[in-house]
Amino acid sequence: MSDLTLPFKDIPIRLKLMTVILLTSGAVLLLTCAAFVAYEIVTLHRVILQRYQTSAQIIAANSTAALAFQNQTDATEVLDALRMDPRIMEACIYDAKGKVFATYPPKASVANFPQAPGESGYQLGHMEVFCPVIQGNRTLGTVYVQSDLSALTDRYHAYAWLAAGVIFASLLLAFLLSRMLQKQISEPILALAGTAQAISKQQDFSVRAQKFGKDEIGSLTDAFNQMLDEIQTQDQAIKKLNAGLEQRILERTAELEKTNLEVRDANDKLKELDKLKTDFFANVSHELRTPLTLILAPVEALLTAPAGTPIPKETLQIVQNNASRLLQIVNGLLDFSKVAAKKMEAHREPVHILDLTRSIVWDFKGLMKQKGIELDVSLDAGHPVVEMDRYLYERILFNLLSNAVKFTPKGGKIRVDLYAIDDQLTLTVMDTGIGISEANQKKLFEKFHQVEGSATRRFEGTGLGLAMCKEFAQLLEGAVTVKSEEGKGSAFTLVCQAPKTKEKPVFVDFSANKRLAPVADRTAAVKITAEEMESQPKVLVAEDNPEMADFIHGLLSAFCNVRLAVDGIEALSMVRRWHPDLVLSDVMMPLMDGIHLTHEIKNDKEISAIPVVLLTAMTDRESLMAGWQAGADDYLFKPFHPKELEARVRSILASVEWRRKSEAYRRQRDALEHFTHIASHDLREPLRKIINFIQLFENGQKDLDADSQFYLRTIRDSATRMHRLLDVLMEYSRLDRPDGSFATASLGEILENAEEDLSEEIARTGAKITAGPLPDLTVIKDQIRLVFQNLIANSLKYRKAEGIPEIHIEAKKKEFEWVFSVKDNGIGFDPAQGEKIFIMFERLHGNEKYPGEGMGLTICRKIIETHGGRMWANGYPDKGATFYFTLPLEKEALVF
Q1: Per the confidence metrics, is the pTM higher than 0.70?
Q2: Contact at 8 Å (CB) between 472 and 466?
């Protein structure tokens, strides 16, 4: 019904009313005419059938004599009387035997008639009448008459025209009546709808609908007008409220836009600060590890030297210089932390400002002379003794002079001007160095900011010096400014308060050993050894720190032909010309860093086979991954032991020589084994140093905050876990070439030895271990003992929180192998993880609850595969686990 009403849903109500009246009238007329026509058709069928049956009976009555005497001519004449009815198509007379006796028309084919008399009635397209010819009690034959239906068709046409005329006239009358009457209903409704539409478009709720009568539509109009009264009242209140809301929204929108801009600016500043801090920590790590290396390495070399060996003065000088430099960095970091915590204050005292300035400048004369820099000093003060914080002033002047020396090339000039007038001091340090761009000048005094990137810096530093100068100047009630032009030099000026005083200054020894000495120049060219030692392996050392380069050269020159390069570009050129056996490169170098140098070497087919070892102070994962992705063969972490460097270089050179003489397959296998051994052995020393230095730092820093303690504890725990992991990796690498040999042994005794190794853990957990008879097989005893030990330990570790661990071990003999099973009642595992647990370092549980390296089952499977067997596991959560492994009846160990 919904489908029938859907087309009328959107038409006007006038058309709806007219349509309803017309459809109703049409349906009634249609049903009436249909009933009348149906009745007439049924009646007509009956009348026509009776009429032709009467005609057939007359023919039958007249045909008795002809049939009785078999006079066909008389029968034909009787049938010929049917020609008076044009609707009769054919007719015939059957004899008593049912054969056609006479036909109409006379020449009609016998095949056109039914083969035998049948029933009267209507057929497809015509009507058939059968009437028996009876004389007395004897049937002489049958009369057959076939008539067309034209009489019916004519009557149908007449009925159709009559019905159409009646329906049309009735619908026309209904249309005229509905058109006149529908206005009484539609006009009030249309008026009401028009009023609603006008209100909707104009939003004028003062308009009212016209009332046409007191019927239901009139009541609806009254209710509609009453609703408009209420809406008009509410609309006025809403408009007033909206006006206030719009004003508040505009004000809030303006505030939000302003806040969003502030948040975006803050986010941009935070992102920039985060990047600067990342670079800062990278720089600090490098700056700390380099002097630490040059302190620890010489000291450890001296400690391991034979008794009575003279101590070279140059070695002690290296240690002293780098200790001083390390102290500078640490003091700078401490100053930074104090300033950040707002704990730094100025403590003024009587100071002879000219003597203090002169002594600081004097400490840099040697360094300036070494670089060929001309120094000009002008000091003038009417009252040389002033109230000054000696430490803050010294740090400012020291940083300004350090920067001037650092960024002034050979042959340049540095000028220091000081004058004090009234209670104000002005200090200017000018140089003819590289200068600073206008863009960098805006950020020059910001924390962590450095003009150059951290990986390819030409000049070292933490990026805090000038920021500290700014902070210290403010503490001295002054400021530091800069004027600079690229390529022409810079001038830094300190203006601060320096009240005159008549008090005598406290005596201070301004000698260099009482104050921080300037770090030796790092940009001085390193002379490359020209002597050729063709019989020794060739090693290229790329290191921009001259002291470090000379130290490494001294360590390796005894057994290597060593050449030095001061940056990555020079190193790459020497690699292509000289083809060394090993490249030992620092990561942070000017012009081209060690990562880029490694990438260039490994992507050049002619030199890609040369091993590259990176010296780095960066131990975070991202930095290490950058080196591995570039193709580095190994890392050596600063600080390193001299013996560690020597052993690593000897090992790598030995590996290179071994690769030249070995077959391709053995070269790959043994190189990996050798590398694993060296890595696992030599990484322990730097890990031990990390742990020791962290403990020293924790003992020396009692006031560390919770975050710092957490970070240090995390580093120490990670280093300890790495140390354990190295032991496991060493054990795993030995499986390719087992130390033991195959021999017949009792697996029952091997199991007992494994249980003895775990006796404390078994006693602590109260575990019950049972075993069936175990066979004697040809195995490597220590390795099979390790399999049993790892599997039992695994069951003890993953036991349930409640209950006693139960472990059952048994062996079953198959056709060609023994199948062993170790079954427990522990926490089990998901069957879908049955293969994952054998993958190296894969773990199903967190390390906090179930500590371990994720290598135990990997080692077990490799041992079993080495013995020619297989290993797998089945388990379900909270239903325990069963580990299976097979061993052949005869020794079928894999031979490599």
Answers
A1: no
A2: no
